[in-house]
Amino acid sequence: MTRRDGRARIGLVTTWVALVLGSAPAAAQDPWTEAIHSLWEAEHSKLLEMARDLPEELYDSRPHPDSRSALEELRHVTIGLEMAAAELTRTDFDYGRRTAEDEGKPASRESLVSEMEAALAASLDAIATEGATPRIAWWLTHQAEHYGKLVSIYRMNGLVPPASRAPSAGADPRRQ
Known about the structure:
By secondary structure, the chain is mainly α. It has helices at residues 3-23, 26-29, 31-53, 70-88, 95-103, 109-130, 134-156. It has a single domain (26-169), classed as Four Helix Bundle (Hemerythrin (Met), subunit A), CATH 1.20.120. Helix 4 (70-88) runs antiparallel to helix 7 (134-156).
């Protein structure tokens, strides 16, 4: 191979890499955002699975009289997802108004899950398009605290949280 051939190959490889990276979404170019996006999705997927799984008769269950009920906790997580998306997209968010909206909603799995699914999708899109921030990393650890509270509610009621079940247990919340 001549020196000229080597330069031509380097030029082709450089052009190919530039085209690939240039067409990739911004988040794919940022390892920090990719990591936060992945962790955000994993943590909130566990919470969403709890929203789909927790028996409705346990929605009023609380680990302590001064704490939120399971339903309130899951709705609070949803509000957190909405707030995070608003923060990333620089959209106004009124926490008090949004919290008051939840008071009149039905205590149903359908309502809870559909809102959480929409909020999770919006927050993942915001992270992917706007990039992750240190504040979003803080939100992630905060949401993990809510997961811990919900695990306590499961355990207090003799149930195994979905993420802790053995694969052979299937959908039975009483099997580990």
